[in-house]
Structure to design on (418 residues):
């Protein structure tokens, strides 16, 4: 598990506002530390682990969606290209539907709108429909495609998906802005936005698309966000939004407002009503990282809290109550997901290059997490091409799906919990 000292984590936090300096110093430090850990095993686990598609490089991407529909079908990506290289060099990835038990690929298509961290935001709408992003060459825009597994018919929508609520609606954002400001999560079919374009925040932001009527509307503009509890530096800053997560009830969602001022990055975690727009700021601590809905009123969030420091907390969106998850305090940031109080999460590579995967049976209990495995992360996968474990719990199958590069290539794995 995490072996970084408190000093190392504090230094990383200080440098997080200066991505260029952080990237350089981290690379030098990491290379030096890896030389002391050359004899580490690439995988250590007491659980059964299998690659779901060893023929090619494969992955699912982000931790906030499950690749399984809970009824025997699995979504994932495969690549004919080296995923340790920039996704800009790969002309496409393959989007696949697989029988979860026979491993037979029953449908496959290509997408040009992707990255290695989130793929093309492939996600189930229902057990019978899924959605993902692609590029419309004729109209030179990113779009979403909805596929029915009954006959694999396709319905195209003119905006790309970021997060969805069943087959009712989805939220969209400007992936061109994301590519310009944070290529890790952007797509590469269109050129970067200019400085002038980035300053136009009145017609950019968060869109809502009704999947039944197909109506689109700009729900919250970046200008709206900047006017909400505004700060003097906002006018001279560059702004973006990302990482939308809709609540289990579908009525609200959270997202990150990130802005760059004097070459430093700042974070705000905001809560919004899915019908009317902004509600309130949940955190303005300058460091907000990953989060996960426990239920429609509570979030697990990793952030730098004024009361508890840098840690995971359980945050009540209505009362504002915060409770630190003390049994995770020594592991640092990760990617939490789960069902109700049952949660899996991971760590970033430690100084020896080891990523840890573990489970908590009850987020609110004092019981120590159970280690599911440790996996080596080769240095050739770095920056936007890194491979976080991004674990996703599937209760119906009693398993955890996660991405890893411990074998030397990117693979989506299944770990059996029983």
């Amino acid at each position: 598990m995490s072996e970084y000292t408190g000093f190392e984590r504090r230094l990383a936090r200080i440098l997080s506002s200066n991505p260029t300096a952080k990237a350089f110093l981290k690379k030098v430090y990491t290379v030096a530390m890896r030389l002391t850990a050359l004899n580490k095993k690439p995988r250590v686990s007491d659980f059964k682990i299998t690659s779901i598609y060893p023929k090619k490089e494969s992955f699912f991407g982000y931790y906030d969606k499950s690749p399984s529909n809970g009824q025997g079908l699995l979504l994932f990506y495969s690549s004919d290209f080296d995923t340790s290289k920039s996704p800009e060099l790969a002309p496409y990835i393959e989007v696949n539907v697989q029988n979860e038990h026979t491993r037979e690929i029953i449908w496959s298509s290509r997408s040009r709108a992707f990255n290695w961290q989130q793929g093309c935001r492939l996600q189930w709408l229902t057990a019978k429909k899924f959605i993902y992003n692609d590029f419309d060459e004729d109209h030179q825009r990113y779009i979403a495609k909805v596929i029915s597994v009954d006959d694999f018919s396709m319905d195209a929508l003119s905006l790309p998906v970021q997060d969805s609520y069943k087959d009712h609606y989805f939220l969209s954002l400007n992936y061109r802005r994301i590519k310009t400001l944070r290529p890790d999560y952007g797509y590469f079919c269109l050129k970067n936005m200019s400085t002038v374009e980035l300053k136009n925040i009145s017609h950019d932001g968060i869109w809502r698309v009704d999947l039944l009527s197909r109506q689109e509307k700009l729900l919250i503009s970046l200008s709206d966000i900047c006017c909400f509890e505004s700060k003097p530096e906002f006018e001279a800053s560059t702004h973006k939004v990302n990482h939308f997560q809709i609540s289990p009830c579908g009525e609200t969602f959270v997202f990150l407002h990130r802005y760059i001022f004097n070459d430093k990055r700042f974070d705000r975690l905001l809560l919004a009503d899915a019908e009317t727009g902004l509600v309130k700021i949940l955190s303005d601590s300058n460091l907000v990282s990953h989060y996960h809905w426990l239920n429609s009123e509570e979030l697990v969030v990793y952030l730098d809290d004024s009361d508890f420091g840098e840690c995971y907390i359980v945050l009540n969106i209505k009362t504002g109550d915060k409770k630190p998850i003390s049994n995770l305090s020594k592991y640092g940031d990760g990617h939490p997901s789960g069902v109700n109080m049952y949660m899996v999460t991971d760590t970033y590579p430690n100084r020896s290059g080891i990523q840890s995967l573990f489970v908590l049976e009850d987020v609110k209990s004092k019981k120590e997490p159970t280690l599911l495995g440790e996996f080596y992360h080769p240095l050739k996968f770095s920056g936007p091409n890194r491979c976080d474990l991004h674990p996703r719990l599937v209760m119906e199958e009693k398993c955890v799906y996660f991405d890893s590069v411990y074998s030397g290539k990117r693979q989506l794995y299944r770990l059996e919990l029983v």
The mean pLDDT is 94. Helices lie at 6-15, 19-34, 175-181, 195-199, 222-227. The CA atoms of residues 192 and 254 lie 26 Å apart.
